[in-house]
C-alpha cells in the first residue's frame, strides 16, 4: 500500500495542473473544474491499482471529470447560463497568478474557448493542453479519430477567425 500511496502522490503532483487546465477549458467555470478534478482524483485513488495500469492515467482523470460534468447536467435537466466570458475569465487559473498556474490560459483565449461547442472544447483540451495524439483523444472521448480531427479543425478555424481575422479572410481568397 505504501508503494501505491507514493506512486499516486507523484502522479497527482505532476499531473494535477494539466488536468485542471484541460477540464477548465471544457467546463469554463473554475470552481466547477476544481471540484470535478478533485473528485476525479479521488476516484482515481480509489481505483489506483487499475488506473495506474491504464495506458493514459491522466486522460482517465480528465475523462472521469468530463463524465461527471455530463452527469451533473443530466441531473439538473435545465439550462444553466455560463458566466460572461470576459468577466468570468478573470477568476480562471493563470489569469490572477495566485494558484501556481500563471498564464495557463489567457483571458481572451478562455473567453473564445467558452464560445466553442462543448465537444470542440474537450478536443482542444485533450489535444492541445494535454498534448494527446488523435487516437488517444478519440479513445478518451469515445469518438472516432476522424471526428477528433474534424472538431479540432473547426475549433482552430473558429479561434483563428476571432484572433486573426485578416489571416482568416485572406485564406478564403
Secondary-structure map:
Layout: H1 2-27, H2 30-46, H3 48-51, H4 57-76, H5 85-88, H6 107-115, H7 118-129, H8 134-141, H9 145-163, H10 165-171
Helix run count = 10
Helix content: over 70%
The shape, in one word, is globular
* Count of β-strands: 0
- Note the run of SSEs as H and E: HHHHHHHHHH
- How much of the sequence lies in strands comes to under 5%
How can the largest sheet be summarized?
A: none
Description of the molecule:
With 173 residues, the chain is mainly α. The chain has one domain. 73% of the residues lie in helices and 0% in strands. The protein has helices spanning 2-27, 30-46, 48-51, 57-76, 85-88, 107-115, 118-129, 134-141, 145-163, 165-171.
Task: Give keywords.
173 residues, mainly alpha
Question: How would you sum up this structure in a few lines?
Answer:
By secondary structure, the protein is mostly helical. It has 10 helices and no strands. Helices cover 73% and strands 0% of the residues.
Amino acid at each position: 500500500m505504501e508503494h501505491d500511496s507514493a506512486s499516486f502522490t507523484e502522479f497527482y503532483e505532476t499531473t494535477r495542473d494539466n488536468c485542471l487546465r484541460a477540464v477548465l477549458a471544457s467546463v469554463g467555470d473554475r470552481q466547477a473544474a476544481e471540484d470535478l478534478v478533485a473528485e476525479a482524483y479521488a476516484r482515481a485513488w480509489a481505483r489506483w491499482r487499475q488506473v495506474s495500469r491504464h495506458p493514459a492515467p491522466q486522460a482517465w482523470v480528465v475523462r472521469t471529470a468530463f463524465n461527471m460534468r455530463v452527469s451533473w447536467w443530466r441531473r439538473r435537466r435545465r439550462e444553466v447560463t455560463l458566466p460572461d466570458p470576459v468577466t468570468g475569465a478573470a477568476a480562471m487559473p493563470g489569469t490572477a497568478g495566485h494558484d501556481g498556474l500563471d498564464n495557463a490560459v489567457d483571458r481572451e483565449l478562455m473567453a473564445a474557448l467558452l464560445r466553442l461547442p462543448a465537444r470542440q472544447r474537450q478536443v482542444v483540451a485533450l489535444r492541445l493542453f494535454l498534448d494527446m495524439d488523435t487516437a488517444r483523444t478519440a479513445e478518451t472521448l469515445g469518438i472516432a479519430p476522424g471526428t477528433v480531427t474534424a472538431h479540432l479543425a473547426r475549433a482552430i478555424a473558429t479561434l483563428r477567425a476571432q484572433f486573426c481575422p485578416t489571416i482568416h479572410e485572406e485564406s478564403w481568397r
